[in-house]
Design goal:
- The complex is a heterodimer of chains A (297) and B (230).
- Chain A is of the alpha/beta class and 297 residues long.
- Chain A is built from 13 helices and 11 strands.
- Chain A is 36% helix and 19% strand.
- In chain A, the strands form 2 sheets. Chain A has a 6-stranded parallel beta sheet with strand order 2-1-3-4-6-5, with helices on both faces. In chain A, strands 7-9-8-10-11 form a 5-stranded mixed beta sheet, with helices on both faces.
- In chain A, helix 1 runs parallel beside helix 7 and helix 3 runs parallel beside helix 5.
- The radius of gyration of chain A is 19 Å and the shape is globular.
- Chain B is built from 7 helices and 5 strands; from the N terminus they run ααβααβαβαβαβ.
- In chain B, helix 4 runs parallel beside helix 5.
- The chains are: A alpha/beta (297), B alpha/beta (230).
Chain lengths: 297, 230
Amino acid sequence: MREIFVTAAEEVLADARTTIVLADISAAAFAPAAARYPDRVVNVGIREQLMMGVAGGLALTGQRPIVHSYAPFLVERAYEQIKLDLDHQGVGAVLVSVGASYDRAAAGRTHLAPADVALIDTLNDWTVHVPGHPDEVPGLLRDAVCGRGSAYLRLSTQTNARAYPEAGDLRVMRDAGPGAPLLVAVGPLLDAALAAVADRPVTVAWTHRPRPFDTAGLRALAGTEVILVEPYLAGTSARVVGAALADRPHRLLTLGVGRSDLRRYGTPEDHDRWHGLDAAGLRRSVDAFLTPARAAA
Amino acid sequence: MTTTTATDPALLGALLDRVRAGREFGANVYSTLDVLQVLYDRVLRITPATVDDPDRDRFLLSKGHAVAGYYALLAAKGFVPADWLDDQGGPESRLGDHPDRLLVPGVEIGSGSLGHGLGLGVGTALGLRAQGRTDPRVYVLLGDAELDEGSNHEAIAYAGATGLGNLTAIVVDNRSASHGWPGGAASRFTVNGWTAATVDGRDHAALHTALTKHDHHRPHVVVAVVTDGE
């Protein structure tokens, strides 16, 4: 996804409003673009606070900044700059991260950012894109850059087998009929979710745009059992789902990355397993949720 | 577009009293007033008619708590109606204890949390450069204690290294930094390639000279030392 992002970002640089702001991460990949647009590919060095301040200042002059770094450095390190230099100034930017929850698991906690979407979710009116396949990235980036507000694109090395470029609103991937439990999967967890409930009467809907969440679609599809499967902190979208279904009795299971620092390395696949986000883990959680009495026994 | 009319001290004093409304102001307000007057009287190319002109000079008040004199001066220059000053901080007021750019005409950034203005100023300078706007300058007003914030040092190093010539920082130095800046605040900038001038922050002629002697090739800092009347 990172490579296809670089290519797509070079293309949107044709618009003179676009400015890419980097803090050394991916700077080599953007070197050709920097040579072509020296005033609009800005690498501030390893300075993440400045990176976000610069984005705010650029936006104040009418430029459209694309700010890019590793997820923990982009979203967590200078959170106050995101809050004040963008939101409070009333200007927008497009933030594009790589690394996701545990793409570089062997690098340890410093390079893991499962809380990024939850942090962005403390802000108002942000669009969040979590593509599930590299081919979804260019369209999402173009849409975000063409907009005026703020958007967060969360790129990952984890992908589904197929791309579904038009899936902002919930898209039904498997229909188990009226009243069936609804599983909502986000981004690259679609394939694992489909595999987990392949032989269960569960409807599966998917999106790569968790914010704004398609609450109308959710209300149309949801029965009394709703299962959220997200590739970042478990429960990140629980408040949205809870509010959307506040007027009806429902049960909600939220699956995602756990909160504890595991202090384990390994591969992203290992972390999927440890957080119960592989197909087998998802199946165990879904089965327990749908047959609570048996699970308790 | 340059404003050259000196602000009437009696008018400014009366406007400041309307903001003050019987409260006591600290050194952070009075130590900034002279710099603000020189900027708005003699340096900044901005008027109430040009607050949205893309080629205007930008003034970014980073030390947002020094806002009372700023509001008084904005009223004196006609950016905001004087009667806005009378209920500063009130429930219906547009004038908070820190300024909000979306609420106050002529205010370029919402500030208050220290250490944000210089980064925004660097981005603004870069944006103007990317648009081929070579005339407008970006002025950012900081305090010496605010300079403690590490975010400023990211901005100082980057602006110096890249020769961001359309940027001027003004540091009002009233010796309020907890651990001080041995060698003077200016040395933190010059070591990173900025030009610098350190002057008496009450001396309008010296401030004007310092604020206008940038060389267009490097960022420039004016340290306005204010030691009296604290």
